[in-house]
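WARN no homologs supplied; continuing
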Amino acid sequence: MFRLSNLLKSVVEEKPSRVLDGSIAIWNFTNRCNLSCLHCYSKADLDAVDTLTTEDIMQTLPKLKANGVKFLIFSGGEPLTRKDLFDIAARCRELGIVTYLSTNGLYVKSSNAEKILDTFDYIGISIDGSPDVHDKFRGLKGSFNESMKAVDLLNSYGRKKVGIRFTITKDTYDDLRFIFELAEEHNIPKIYISHLVYSGRGLENLEMDLSKEQRIGAVEYILDKAFEYYETGRDIEIVTGNMEMDAILFYDRFSERYPEYADEMLSRLEAWGGNSAGRKLLNIDSEGFVKPDPFFPVKIGNILHQDFSDIWTNEPTELLRKLRVHPRELGGKCEGCIYLPICNGGSRSRAYAIYGDMWAEDPSCYLSAENTKGEA
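OK structure emitted
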């Protein structure tokens, strides 16, 4: 993920930026969900039966910590359908693992709101646009209102740890402005904008993805808001995900606005290093399979049959070793691109889905070949 607001503030104010000094694991603890979202990569539904037992999970958590995982995102399906979720999160806290909860918010009620806030370090609730668009996208009428009730309820405690998550597609493109207006109106402290990755229902709905012209327009608008919030002192953090090329458009804009800090920003962007699948990011799915990220077309092991330490550290596959080369050795316009050390080539899942080649260029990259040559 690209924390552009944090980078903007830290560089201009000459402060350390928020650095990921460990790996992030996204764990789909269940494939059970009360919604049927069009872009869902795990094809979750309410009839799914949990494969992983509490014991399976508890035995793996110390191994995650021992192998450098410091952040664990609780995902699904809908993670709040698991009755042992709070016990799992409590064990993470004992181990010193920071926990994020990714939820649709429909199971957040006044009876459990404070417990959720006490348990998790951050909660992200999915909102996919205006009420009608969100409800259509989520497959349930009235789901927008219920999700926003959860956002407002959790934020009413004043802890500033609840944000909204928005996936941008052709169907939600026109509601990007709405999302920012919603955050401003409801004093929501964080907006996470996710670009579509072709996997799960996202692959089945490939036509949902933006054109490159739309994507540039969307990213330009997101950047406008980031600079506006910083320069007016508005305390709303913006993060984008699954499109590391956003950092390059951000760098161009930043360099024009703050040329005296351009070199420092470039240095920090290269240290950030772009797409980190298989390097500082991993996924464990609801059946125990380990992948470099949640969308990845290739599995590298299974915690039910292998020790996680062997999968991730002791006996990494050739795929993992290649993913950990930085910058990656890629074809297409990535080969020789001056910005490769920043974005690291973007999504390997999208490259594989479109070209059948894990090491091709990311087909969603909106940089023109002419813009990738010369000096950064």
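The longest strand covers residues 69-75.
OK
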